[in-house]
Amino acid sequence: MFYDKKVWLGLTDEGEKACLLPRMANRHGMIAGATGTGKTVTLKVMAEAFSDMGVPVFMADVKGDLAGTKNAGADSDDMRERIESFGLGEAAFAYQGYPVTFYDIFGRNGIQLRTTISEMGPTLLSRILDLNQLQSDLLSVVFKIADDNGLLLIDTKDLKAMLNFVNDNRKEFAQDYGNIAPASIGVILRAVAAIEAEGGDVFFGEPAINLNDWFATGAGGKGMISILDSQSLIHNGRLYSTFLLWMLSELFENLPEVGDLPRPKMVFFFDEAHLLFKNTSKSLLDKIEQVVKLIRSKGVGVYFVTQNPRDIPDNVLAQLGNKVQHGLHAYSPAEQKAVRAAAQAFRENPAFKTYDTILGLGTGEAVVSFLDEGGIPMMAQKVRVLPPQSAFGGISDEERGVAVKGSLLYGKYAEAVDPDSAYEFLERRGLEAFEERERLKQEAAEEKERLRQEALAEKERLKQEAAEEKERARQEAADAKAKAAEEARIQREKEKEEAAKKRAAKQVGSSVAGTLGREVGKTFGAKFGTFGKTLGGNVGASLGRGLLNTFFKS
Question: What is the pTM of this model?
């Protein structure tokens, strides 16, 4: 509770108040202890005190039992006995509820929490997707290509569209960005699909959460307590831890440097903190260490809630100045070693053995060490933790629904918005490319048809010319044949005429030759008498005609 301008956590056996100084709250802290030892009560008491001093608080509700913070605690005999044991009167302790805003990554039990793929970044996204180093490097290349081309990565469909785009054009990108393996692209796409099935398609989108909305106060100037419902989210440890780490990173990157303030600007409780460091790569662990180390100067206090301090790496543990250690069990050598390490993290108090005390702590008891005015850890103190002023346990679904919809921020984040981003751009580009291909295809078809028609026309023309040529040749042949026939007829007529002339001449010649021969024969035969004359005439005629025929033949 908030007392004397301090966070009063509990009382020592000697009746001394164990208090956390507000100006040292941004030096971070740890609440550790086995299950059932009272970590949740300690968290509630501290959160209530910060809220009372006007400091906003963010905490993850893993079991659903922090929701009751919105309601005043209920009086009972046990509570009155506890209150009296701390020497608290009604003036010092009053049951009260606190201003609470419920959030849920899946949007079921609180205001929808979203962020964009670009804001998450390739490093944290690789953790969610459980990628190896090679695949993580390739995802960074995809983000770089998106940035270089002015493509916004808002949701998972943007990321998938970008991955497919890079894969389809990997040969063009290889010269500037290096080799892009299709198999690795396939692995990332399958990982994105798996995250979508787990609710990632709801988590990534617009409107993205504005972290400035968490720096709000409620009635009476109390700091707003933002509760992330993590009952379902905790089953996906990577998404849970990565989201909370993203939130810290966003706070670190966007908040101005303020140094040490009289009180922190915000306090962040990271429950189930071991999930943050489980299977964490060296590069991501370095990032966590850097954020935890430097976010102090932004006025933000980070408190890790876990079962065992050994869940937190030594370099991070060294940054935690305020420690609350609830009871631990040590039934094995390994557990004893862990308890011994937890005890050694405290400044030794000569009044008791820290190791033995941690083993003997009951429910609601803790070993505590806070920073003093000079930032030096105080000696370990065994304390009994105060009871919270708000109600224990969860709330009904109806009451939660009323609280969620009654928030001023509900309307701001209730409806998802799908802006014009990489998916839409690449869809248009793909549609334009498809339309261009269709246009070229149509033009090619039209050109093919035009060429076909031209070919048909040319074929028809050639066919017509061939037919005309054939007809011309036929006509010429016919004309030549007719001409030859005419010439033959004329020749025949001429030959006939010449033959007739020859026959006529022959007849005349024959007659003349016969007559002449006969006369000559007769003259020559007359010397031999009448018989000689007749014979000479006949012979002369025949001889005359024979000579004439021989002449005409030659």
Answer: 0.77
